[in-house]
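Supplementary Text 2. Reproducibility record for the structural model of the 267-residue chain.

All settings were left at their defaults, and a single model was retained for analysis rather than an ensemble. We include the record here because the model underlies the residue-level annotations in Supplementary Table 4.
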Amino acid sequence: MSVEAPKRFFRESDHPLAEMYRKRVEQDRDLVILITDSSNDRGTGKTTEALRLAHGMDRTDDGVTPEKVALNPHPLIQAYTEEPRGSSLVLDESEVGIDKYKAGSAVNRAIRELVSTGRIEEKYLVLNAPADHLVDQDLKTLVDVWVLVERRGFANVYRMDWNPHQGHELTHNMGTLTWDPIPNGSDLHSVYQHLTEKKEARLRGEEGDDFVKRSEAQDMVEQAQKEAEKGKRNQLIRAMVENGLTQTQTADIVGLDQTTVSKIVNS
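Retained model, structure tokens:
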């Protein structure tokens, strides 16, 4: 299949994902797609699909270039601010070279920093995560579409919403996606090769600006753990107040001052 097939898909298809994309373009809004594998397998074509989706959505003259793809959040955050409007950006196999839980922390950090503070840059983000269970549940509320790869070249697609009353995400089936390998000799294949070389370099232990050092990864994990613990504590505090305890009583139980409890309850 031609590398132009993704362009035609987003331009002409009646698939719900293509229709969502065209509506976002009309509204000058971002679109964020999360790709995971149902079995946490490698070699199922997540990278290929991430690049094809990005290629189909990118509306710039240069298209998807090596500067728009990354293996960790740091260069992606820079590209988010520097690349022109209408660009597609890809965070690819972030588990390469670090263990899966550290990789999950990196993806969570990318979503949190790019998505929650963005929405004004008119960029299209494709985040290729190690596995669904490594992405924080609360961060999934910031993602528009979830592509769940079931086998090589085939995925189910879901639109993500959030139920504020029941406190969990809602997934609406948007159908399926199928894809072929990226044709050799195309510009997009050159980007694919660029990513492959970066992954191989990381596996050899080489590090640079495009890599997450293990010390940095550990910092990410520790920060993510602190944020998770703080989030659970804050949720408990709100529940205690909602169930009739005063802020002063709650503060005594959890070991905080009343002013801190008040800020948490009213945040």
